[in-house]
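New to this. Please check this protein:
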Amino acid sequence: MIPRLTVPPLENGDRLTRFEFERRYNAMPKLKKAELIEGTVYMASPLRFEPHAEPHADLIGWLWNYKIATPGVRLGDNPTVRLDLDNEPQPDAVLLIDSQAGGQSRFSQDGYVEGAPELIAEIAASSATVDLGDKKRAYRRNGIKEYIVWQVFEQRLDWFCLEAGEYINIQANEAGIFQSQAFPGLWLDASALLAGNMQQVLTILQTGLNSTEHQSFVQQLAQAIESNG
């Protein structure tokens, strides 16, 4: 009798190729979240409510309101992203421009994101060292235009923008508002977000959605979709 081959389980710290990572991940259907960052496997701990689940929901709510006002933009919650042979993260949130609208990423035949989404956001409670270290370097190298890291315990939000191959911190304007460069009209009152004041967050976002920059962006996306249709 030929012995049946078994797939080894994923373990924290495993050094794997992306293909072997996917093979082992697919063999563990009960596993909720695992990432391959610079060739190393990271597996999430159980998620607590206030340090992760609630901030995650608030972040998604902000991005979802932008998405529904901007046809051609798509939002994903914890999608697997195939970046390169050593990196397959599962970010907390991904905001991307659809490929039909001129976006730089695409969807594989088996339904995964391939390439670099325009914006990735992470809630960094216990994962700040990875999120601001190897993961940030991988995102920069693969051309992700903007990267948001919300450090919950430190009550700090960093918004990085890719310029000339390097990440620089986007600075808030005099009113304390961050404005995305990749997604015109995506405005954020970070102090309100950190304080859990979502009414103020959505008020400022709506101001961004009413801006001429956002209106022009919506027209640009519509023209791209029409030309690719």
Observations:
- The first strand starts at residue 34 and ends at 37.
- The radius of gyration is 18 Å.
